[in-house]
Amino acid sequence: MTETLVVERLQTHFFTKAGVVKAVDDVSFSVGRGKVLGLVGESGSGKSVTGFSILGLVDPPGRVVSGAIRFKGENLVGRSEDDWRRLRGARIAMIFQDPMMTLNPVLRIDTQMIEAVQAHEPVSKDVARQRARDALGQVGIPSPDERLRSYPHQFSGGMRQRVAIAIALLHKPDLIVADEPTTALDVTIQGQILAEVQTLARTTGTSLIWITHDLSVVAGLADDICVMYAGKVVEQGTVDAVLDHPLHPYTNGLLGSVPSRNKRGQPLQQIPGMTPSVLKLPPGCAFQARCARVSAACAEPIAMQEFRPEQFARCIHPHRDEVPA
Amino acid sequence: MTVYLIRRLMQAMLVLAVMSVLVFLGVFAIGDPIEILIAADATQREKEEARIALGLDRPLIEQYWVFVQNALQGDLGRSFVFNMSALQVILQRFPATFELAMVAMLWTVLFGIPLGLWAGLKPDSFSGKSIMAGSILGFSLPSFWVGLMLIMTFAVVLGWLPSTGRAEPETHFGITSSLWTAKGWSHVMLPSINLALGQIALVIRLTRAGVREAMLMDYVKFARAKGLSQRRVIGVHVMKNIMIPIVTVLGLELGSLIAFAVVTESIFAWPGMGKLIIDSINLLDRPIVVAYLLMTVFLVIFINFAVDVLYSVLDPRVRLKDAGA
Q1: ipTM for the assembly
Q2: Where do the domains of chain B lie?
Q3: Is the CB of residue A40 less than 8 Å away from at least one CB of chain B?
Q4: A94–B225: do the CB atoms touch at under 8 Å?
Q5: Residues 6+ away with beta carbon under 8 Å from A214
Q6: Mean pLDDT for each consecutive 10-residue tract of chain A (325 residues)?
Q7: Interchain pair B236, A88: CB under 8 A
Q8: Distance between CA A257 and CA A268 in Å, rounded?
Q9: For the domain with range B86-314, which CATH number is right: 3.30.70.660, 1.10.3720.10, 3.40.50.360, 3.30.479.30?
Q10: d(CA B141, CA B139)
């Protein structure tokens, strides 16, 4: 099966006055047709910047420095802005984190949907409106005709995110990058949206990159998982392998921090220390300052290594043959 | 909406009432107009007769009461100097000032918004920084000095434009204006530029700040992720959002341009209200001063109200409720 997207050794850096921030540093992964990749990490790990890089939406002072983004076999890095524009929204769509902020507050829903249709297809306004209405119906918005004439503030958060998803689906893209789309929603809505997105991905063959910090979301949704820490992928593999038998101490720590896995009455487990400043990362493992298994060798650059079939980690002291904490 | 209108109307009436008392007291404190109006060699008896004729012999309270009674019937008093209805004298001068203010407004919108947009989109470029440096000059140079420099440059040295006065107005399509002729435009050019410079600087800064803020918003990124052209993202998504504060300021500024074009009108001998009020204060022509100030207050209140209504057109989240003030 051909892969929808292959990211190879991607580096996205931000050139600030304080120094170069390596927000994405040597990240590689691939997503197959109809597959869901979970991109997991805490705030500042570079997962959102990875997502923006795939859409060519990294704003100055940041830019993709090296690496390749192969979309259906074609490398997108270095393409003109116009090429990117033709791709965005049509073949690769994106859903953002905060549905309160992504829709323009002063434009009606129909304006925002019709322009999205017309940006890629030379159709009349009526046809575009029809398409918009169908898309709203598809994501479960009742009386779409009426809702088209509403403004974003007349929708609830969950409804707005459905509208954003409907916009992403307008052109039946091959890939959707979803940047924590359910984080701002309450749990019941979160569940509904996850289920709907999963069904849509399956029926249309759309691939998904689901960016999140919530491991429980990934567990139920993704096929593969990529764990990022300080701009680097520290562990990747199938969702079952990584969640059941994590190799990297960071993944292990993340899993240990999920409250439901702790015993009642016990203090919650946490990873000690804080995320290192992205401006002065150590040359070796970025996690070494917080890791219980650290040794002198961790200060040297560490390569990605396959420890089990299709499970990789960037670590020299992995948790092998151990039950996660 | 109706409740809102009534409330606004009552507020306006209150402001007008308070203003009339203040203005009346203030004008009374300036001095005795008889000393200026009557020839210096007039006898005491002649002075007394003039005082009685003008109603100046009565106590202040009584004078005010007479004024209010007349004002409610639309009569703001008779000018001591012109021996005409004060309102009529002012309204004769109003078109000239209005014309000047509108042309200045035109320059403000035509130059302020595009320059501000450019400076906001390219804040680090040389052109962007030059625009901002220029706007500081627009702000800080005193308008009388700029006026004199304009006359020096364009009227005296280059001889391109007339330095003073207004061309003879013509009437077409029921509108009387000096702007129907090229000569009219040549006369209005210098004073309107003089009047507009400060406003342009203000609008540049306002637009730039708005653009820079809006460009960071998620809805801009989402609009780009839909594959919209840069032109549409800025022209529709950004502009519609930043127009809200700009319209407010333009509205308020239009009020002050009409009311306080005093300096510019004096320099360029523009036969408008500003020049009239200066002359009237010098001659202690009380009815004109009072009528002018009240009309100014009325104008500002009216423009504010118009801006509020415009708000609800621009921003769908604003509804004119009776809670609004």
Answers
A1: 0.85
A2: 86-314
A3: no
A4: yes
A5: A182, A183
A6: 83 88 88 89 86 88 88 86 88 87 88 90 90 86 88 86 87 88 79 81 85 85 89 89 87 81 72 78 82 82 84 85 52
A7: no
A8: 7
A9: 1.10.3720.10
A10: 6
